[in-house]
Amino acid sequence: MTSHPYEILVLGFDDVSLDTSRDLVARMNATRQVRVVFAMAACHAVDGVTATMDWTDPATVSDLLAELTARHLLGLDDVSTDDLAAGLEPGTTVLVLLLEHLWADAVIADIRALGGRCLTSRMLPADPMHDTDC
User: Fold this and answer.
1) Which residues of the chain have pLDDT under 70?
2) Which of 8, 19, 56, 99 has the most crowded CB, counting CB atoms within 10 A?
């Protein structure tokens, strides 16, 4: 099985519901360009009510290791989604995603056929001048 590149995304929103977050994850998966391996959403509504979602779909040991690594890199090893929601400002939502980049199949095959391997990788935000912390 091919090991695809993974990416961690942490997205912030104004008061977005868990249903909207789930719909976004479903639309991302439907593209078949990425697969959401792990998703964590936390909402802190303006009225103070919190809601959370923690979803994982590991298909391989690599997925499990990537999820553990993502949680560790984000400092979420021992943080529950309830704690995350309680720490948010009222009227905000955060969505944490671990994506597997399925589009890379052909590129990976070409690199391997030439005897190549990835030495390092880092994802940049879509608009590096605007989202420097993303």
Assistant:
1) 1-3, 122-134
2) 99
